[in-house]
Design goal:
The complex is a heterodimer.
Chain A: E1 4-7, E2 10-13, E3 18-25, E4 38-43, E5 50-54, E6 58-59, E7 67-72, E8 75-81, E9 89-95, E10 102-103, E11 107-111
Parallel strand pairs in A: 2-11
Antiparallel strand pairs in A: 1-3, 3-8, 4-5, 4-9, 5-6, 7-8, 9-10, 9-11
Chain B: E1 3-6, E2 10-12, E3 18-25, E4 34-40, E5 44-51, E6 58-60, E7 68-73, E8 78-83, E9 92-98, E10 108-112
Parallel strand pairs in B: 2-10
Antiparallel strand pairs in B: 1-3, 3-8, 4-5, 4-9, 5-6, 7-8, 9-10
Classes of the chains: A mainly beta, B mainly beta.
Chain lengths: 112, 114
């Protein structure tokens, strides 16, 4: 199975600070069809995961543009440009290029 | 609007089975697969498998073969997952999600205890 390694496991930030989360894959996530199926999700406390970014860098509808995704192959990054209180929670990367689909262990974003 | 409404929490005894549901609304049900995901504190998020809501065809993560059985009722736009031979390790929150993981259900907590 593809292993997704997220760093850091915990991220302390102040409101307005910009932060980045890394997701590294044990295999390239480039599909034979040319797409890279790497998504980012946010799970707030007590809620189900909600999608933020799909296909590495495309924002889901309604997601603020302070969120951005980048990367290719095996290295991917989620950046939040100016953390807001509503951004707190656990961030997961997930891939569905390879089967079974897999998830990173999560990065918990907390207030400093 | 798109919604995936899951059934309520389950308390089950070891060795028994549970069947949880995921009712879709706000889109053409058969246009998207439904996936199922397990979440525990220890193991995080694990992918169980998916069902083709049009054909009923399924694809399971090897780890969950024999544990989970996915079915669908197109007439009610509902996907189901049955978990059998339950053990305490099956205690978790189970989510359904639409095709490209763009919509998720609210989750069902399954607790296995004698």
């Amino acid at each position: 199975d593809v292993v997704l390694t997220q760093t850091p496991p915990t991220l302390l930030a102040t409101i307005g600070q910009s932060v980045s989360i890394s997701c590294r894959s044990s295999q390239s996530l480039l599909h034979s069809n040319g797409n890279t199926y790497l998504n980012w999700l946010l799970q707030r406390t007590g809620q189900s995961p909600q999608p933020l970014i799909y296909l590495v860098s495309k924002l889901e509808s309604g997601v603020p543009n302070r969120f951005s995704g980048s990367g290719s192959g095996t290295d991917f990054t989620l950046k939040i440009s100016g953390v807001e209180a509503e951004d707190l929670g656990v961030y997961y990367c997930m891939q569905f290029t390879h089967y079974p689909h897999t998830f990173g262990a999560g990065t918990k974003l907390e207030l400093k | 609007q798109v919604q995936l409404q899951q059934s309520g929490a389950e308390l089950a005894k070891p060795g028994s089975s549970v069947k949880i549901s995921c009712k879709a609304s706000g889109y053409t049900f058969t246009s998207y697969y439904i996936s199922w995901i397990k979440q525990t504190t220890g193991q995080g998020l694990e992918y169980i498998g998916y069902i083709n809501t049009g054909s009923g065809g399924t694809n399971y993560n090897e780890k969950f073969k024999g544990k989970a059985t996915l079915t669908v009722d197109k007439s009610s736009s509902t996907a189901f997952m049955q978990l059998s031979s339950l053990t305490p390790d099956d205690s978790a929150v189970y989510y359904c999600a639409r095709g490209p993981f763009d919509y998720w259900g609210q989750g069902v907590m399954v607790t296995v205890s004698s």
